[in-house]
Structure formats: C-alpha cells, structure tokens
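Before relying on records like the one below, remember that each one covers exactly one chain. Contacts with other chains, cofactors or solvent are not represented anywhere in the record.
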Amino acid sequence: MAISTGGDGNTPMADINTTPLVDVMLVLLIIFLIAVPVAIQTIEKLEIPIFESVESKDKVENLLITVSTTDAEGRTAGPVKSGFTGAVRDGECRVYLGNTTPVSSEELYDQAFKRLDSIVQRAGGPEAIMEDPDLIPQVHIRGDVNAPWRCVAGTIYNVQAAGYPTIGFISNPVDPNG
C-alpha cells in the first residue's frame, strides 16, 4: 500500500505497487523449490532403451553425394592424414557416395542405378512407386566450394541417367555477421 506524503491532492500518484509482483515471485520460487527435486528424482530412474540400427524398410533413404577435387599436389581428402591442403579448381574430380566411398563415374552410375532399382522393386514395381511419389528417393549433392562446375555437372548427369528424377544441393549456412 502506497502512502502519499505532501504534494497537491490534484496530482496523480506516481508510485508503483510492487506487492503483487513480489507475491507472484514468491509463489514461483516455492513451486520451483518443490518441482525441481521431484523432477531430479524421477529422471535418475530413467532407463534409455538401446536399439540396433537397421535399414528402414518403409522410409525412402535419399542418396547423399559429395563432390570435391584433388589439391594442387594431386592428393585426395580422406580419414588418413594425407597432407590434403584443400580442393582446387584445376584438380581431378572426386565423387564420394554416401560421403565416404570414393567412386568413379561408371561406379556412380552403376551403384545409383542398383540402389534405385532395389527401392523400386521393394515398392512393388514402377507402377506402384509412381502412385506414391513420396517413395521416390532424391539425390542430395554436397559440393566443395572450390569444386568446378564440370565435376558437379558430371555427377548430376550420372544420377539422372541412373533414373533419379529429383536432385537437390546441400550448402553450409552463411554467417550473417561475417
């Protein structure tokens, strides 16, 4: 309760009544003091199940391809320290199926075709897959920033020739702050 001392009786009172704010804060404090220990006790007894990872039979898995080139000395990027200094525009094209398996143009076509054919057969044939377009997988290409367009275009040509109708590109987000 605010008490006004002095001043003119015609001026509005400028004091803020903080009593309701303090009451709400005390109630919230009491709720959290009770709720947090209860939540911690129930979380300690939580058992997370462990499942074996298996290939999905009902969801279409998109084909992920990475396109890069060799560095200036002709070295390829890989998990082993090879001294790779980064892709260059005049390097040899390198295509990785599933981000890990390096493939040539012919191998890319063959493996992409076999993969798409198995998905179509599993769906019940071309007619069945055309009835539900969600069953048709897509190709996602992640291109190195220095990979020339000839490498990316060759990859697009091979996967389209293998029968994939939809191709998308994966990019890294750009930092707006520079």
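The first helix runs from residue 19 to 44.
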